[in-house]
Amino acid sequence: MSLIVNKFDYQPISRKQVNGKRLYETPDGHAVASVTTILDATKDKTHLIAWKKRVGEKKAQEIVTEAAGVGTRMHKYLEDYIEFGEWPQPGSNPYAQQAHGMAEVIKDNVMDDVEVWGSEVALYMPQMYAGTTDLVGTYKGQPAIMDFKQTNKPKKVEWVVDYFLQLVAYAEAHNEVYGTNIREGHVFMCSRAGEYQQFDVWPDEYDEWRNEWYNRVYQYYEQQA
After folding, report:
1. Residue at 79 is within a domain
2. How many domains does the chain have?
3. Mutual angle of helices 57-84 and 94-110, in 10-degree steps
4. pLDDT tens by residue, 133-190
5. Which of 92, 111, 75 is nearest to 186 (CA)?
6. Domain-located, residue 104
7. Do residues 94 and 131 touch, judged by C-beta distance below 8 A?
8. Residue 174 CB: number of other CB atoms within 10 A?
9. Residue 6 lies in a domain
10. What distance in Å separates the CA atoms of residue 177 and residue 76, rounded to the nearest whole number?
């Protein structure tokens, strides 16, 4: 039995590539940039460039590709659990087993505190941006945007600024289209070694992250002009 409480009628949003950019075609008839595209185009990549130089381009790509594969599997286990209400079994593939263990860490740490309104929810801010968030619902009784993340090793809070901005971007879009007042966001993260971390946007700091997010949006569109 699905864990989803159908509070809103969420609709899919189609995607298309335009000049190599991933755009969303939103119900209001506009094609807008994704949240991840805006964040990627406006972030400081100094540390990323230095890391690639340190480990080498080929090795860096291998690490990124492998992490993405594990992360995709981890997400799928959690999505299936939310959709069907039963904990899935892992395959025999060692990466799948690792991803399954990571998903289980997240499930055990947070899902008792979560009510799910929607999973893999497409959201958009009219004429500005769009994207897909892992979860919309409540966390410990409060409306929130929530995302699942995997990491190769535990992260420091200063490394995950874009995660906070991503949460706020989706909250703003949900509030605009569905008339809600979401002012919380949570990232539920597990490392490859099974270490759980959580990063939170709380109501008292929401406006600060909101301002920073719109600064990044404006910066992105200035770059495109």
Report:
1. yes
2. 1
3. 50
4. 999 999 999 999 999 999 988 999 998 999 999 999 999 999 999 999 999 999 999 9
5. 111
6. yes
7. no
8. 25
9. no
10. 27
Residue 9 lies in a domain: no
Cα–Cα distance for residue pair 128/108, rounded to 1 Å: 36
Residue 19 gets the label, from left (phi > 0), alpha (psi -120 to 50) or beta, of left
Question: 61-64 — which CB contacts under 8 Å span 24+ positions?
Answer: 63/152
Q: Please, which contacts does 72-79 make with residues 24 or more away whose CB atoms are closer than 8 Å?
A: 73/99, 73/100, 74/99, 74/100, 74/102, 74/103, 74/106, 74/148, 74/150, 74/190, 75/103, 75/134, 75/148, 77/103, 77/104, 78/103, 78/106, 78/107, 78/134, 78/148, 79/119, 79/120, 79/134
Placement of tokens 């906070």 in the chain: 164
Which pTM was predicted? 0.90
Average pLDDT, the chain: 89
101: CATH: 3.40.1350.10
Structural domain span for residue 83 = 14-224
CB-based contacts of 114-121 (< 8 A; 24+ apart in sequence):
114/138, 114/139, 114/146, 115/5, 116/3, 116/4, 116/5, 116/82, 117/4, 117/5, 117/6, 117/7, 117/8, 118/4, 118/7, 118/8, 118/10, 119/4, 119/79, 119/82, 119/83, 120/79, 121/10, 121/174
Return the amino acid letter for 101: G
